[in-house]
């Protein structure tokens, strides 16, 4: 391994360009070795001002570029399976943005491919596991002071959805974060999903079922509800309240600045995830670089990515049918047994 881990970044859009900046200027121990995006101008713009970073229009060309020792996948979800399998074929450690692969069949192919290798190479970009408030909540729940968790009430609001965002993507893309956070916080699998929807907001694009109310059941008998509203228009709001047998705990209210002027006070609300979860992304990528340099893999695994996709798939079916839908989860390969 070189002194600085050489990373190929696949996808130079919203997240990819931010990860390129992060690898170049924020985290230690890594450097951007190559960037790939079919949009050549986007790739070039992402590395503007950086010395000697080759850009490519083909992902595989970036994986094979000199000095590449690890991969960060930030292309759209549909491109992740091919990229993950190409990284595995080269033995390259990967940090892959969520969703790992939309759809459980493709996600399972990734799990099976990694299990065949017999060692973990992939970490999935569920960055809430690195957010200070989520970590605080996790250690409170694990400590047991509040007793057993009975319910999680979650809110996930975006100011506006990007072009092409579909009703299924509210569950597959947005709620995938709550799916992973709930599995991680509770240490339980989610077993069934029901999706209710109020009248769509007039602020949502024509035809988009937004907002939605998603209810998960867990194997331990807890309930997790999520209000997901991706065109709320007013702010990026992510909250989670855990209701336990002996108390409750809520996170998600701390990310504000209170501005007082001219006899009044106003709380500022973050407008997107790059602001709200900036520290979490930084910690996630730093932890990935550090672990990779030690030859280890930490964070959400390919199995966690698969489980999130399987639960989301049941959620999309529940949205389409209006019927409570059981989650169909494959058996977990021994590679992913808790250590
Ligand atoms: N962790 C988080 O909070 C967030 C994660 N994401 C995830 O990040 C990924 C990218 O999302 P955005 O940056 O918002 O999308 P985007 O649309 O802004 O950027 C995607 C880029 O990938 C490029 N691309 C398309 N096919 C490609 C391929 N085969 N190889 C390499 N590049 C390819 C596109 O030309 C585009 O520049 C998605 O998986 C998304 O779900 C997105 C937003 C927040
Ligand atoms: O992952 C993300 C986006 O892909 C998704 O579209 C948003 O709803 C989430 O808030 C964001 O964190």
TrEMBL record:
MF terms per GO, please? inositol 2-dehydrogenase (NAD+) activity; nucleotide binding
Q: What class of enzyme is it?
A: oxidoreductase
Q: What InterPro entries does the record tag this protein with?
A: Gfo-Idh-MocA_inositol_DH, Gfo/Idh/MocA-like_OxRdtase_C, Gfo/Idh/MocA-like_OxRdtase_N, MI/DCI_dehydrogenase, NAD(P)-bd_dom_sf
Under Pfam families, the record lists: GFO_IDH_MocA (PF01408), GFO_IDH_MocA_C (PF02894)
What domain of life? Bacteria
From the UniProt record, give one GO term of the biological process aspect: inositol catabolic process
**Where is each Gfo/Idh/MocA-like oxidoreductase C-terminal domain found?**
138-323
Enzyme Commission number(s) of this protein: 1.1.1.18
Recorded family membership: Belongs to the Gfo/Idh/MocA family.
Described function: Involved in the oxidation of myo-inositol (MI) to 2-keto-myo-inositol (2KMI or 2-inosose).
Please state what the protein is called: Inositol 2-dehydrogenase
